[in-house]
């Protein structure tokens, strides 16, 4: 019986055209040797692979779509190549697959089907932001995207601040880039003036900013984060 292939979790860049500089050699080696990928967006995936300049003919690379709307039964079918002995790569739109990313669904099925899972090292906006924040790195929670509806979002912000201050735990979260400024307004309105807020934006890119300040100070100098990828952190000290 032919052994199952490997499911590689392949990181993507956080900032455009930074692949050659931030990606480990093993990531490039796996991409060059893999012909089947599960991706969120075909155009983004092709652009990323092309930017690495590995001499890959993209017409020979087979890609299947895996996003939050993919039916669960279809996710199972997407892993068929691995069950037939071929290696598969799960490629995120940005950062590491499985973290705030639908790639976790393929990983869950891989474990059920006894397919070996190999995560590859790469940039993670969550961990880069935490590293640069100065906040507690031993106790933290990543809450992903906060609610879109404002009443629920405000409630979530209050809860995160309460946990950060009472438990000394770092609270990380993010927003779709075109809604960043709206979230920023709510944070500055709802958080206490002495609460520490870190903003980590355009990580690994030319305009990278990681800055931790009291909310009272952010109110005096509010950054424009419109359409700029960012991670927000509330600290407990």
What's the layout of helices and strands?
Blueprint: E1 6-10, H1 19-22, H2 25-33, E2 36-39, H3 42-51, E3 62-65, H4 72-78, H5 80-83, E4 88-91, H6 103-112, E5 116-119, H7 125-133, E6 140-145, H8 150-167, E7 170-174, H9 180-190, E8 196-201, E9 209-214, H10 215-220, E10 230-235
Helix-strand makeup class: alpha/beta
Average the pLDDT over all residues and give the rounded result.
Answer: 94
Low-confidence stretches: none
**What helical percentage do the residues reach?**
25-40%
Rg, rounded, reads 19 Å
Q: What is the rounded distance between the termini?
A: 57 Å
Report on the biggest sheet: 5 strands, parallel
> Any idea what the shape is?
elongated
How many extended strands? 10
Supply the number of helical segments.
10
* Order of the strands making up the biggest sheet: 3-2-4-1-5
Strand fraction equals 15-25%
Q: Write down the secondary-structure element order.
A: EHHEHEHHEHEHEHEHEEHE
């Amino acid at each position: 019986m032919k052994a199952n292939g490997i499911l590689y979790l392949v990181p993507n860049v956080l900032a455009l055209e930074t692949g050659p500089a931030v990606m480990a050699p093993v990531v490039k080696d796996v991409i060059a040797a893999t012909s089947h990928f599960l991706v969120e967006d075909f155009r983004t995936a092709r652009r990323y692979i092309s930017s690495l300049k590995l001499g890959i003919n993209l017409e020979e690379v087979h890609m299947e779509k895996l996003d939050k709307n993919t039916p669960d039964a279809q996710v199972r079918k997407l892993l068929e190549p691995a069950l037939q002995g071929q290696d598969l790569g799960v490629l995120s739109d940005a950062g590491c697959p499985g973290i705030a990313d639908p790639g976790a669904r393929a990983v869950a099925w891989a474990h059920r089907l006894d397919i070996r899972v190999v995560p590859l090292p790469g940039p993670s906006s969550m961990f880069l932001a935490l590293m640069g924040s100065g906040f507690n790195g031993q106790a933290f929670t990543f809450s992903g995207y906060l609610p879109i509806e404002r009443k629920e979002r405000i409630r979530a912000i209050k809860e995160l601040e309460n946990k950060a201050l009472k438990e000394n735990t770092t609270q990380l979260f993010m927003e779709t880039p075109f809604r960043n400024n709206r979230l920023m307004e709510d944070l500055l309105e709802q958080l206490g003036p002495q609460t520490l807020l870190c903003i980590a934006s355009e990580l690994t890119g030319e305009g990278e900013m990681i800055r931790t300040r009291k909310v009272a100070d952010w109110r005096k100098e509010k950054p424009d984060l419109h359409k700029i990828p960012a991670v927000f952190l509330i600290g407990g000290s």
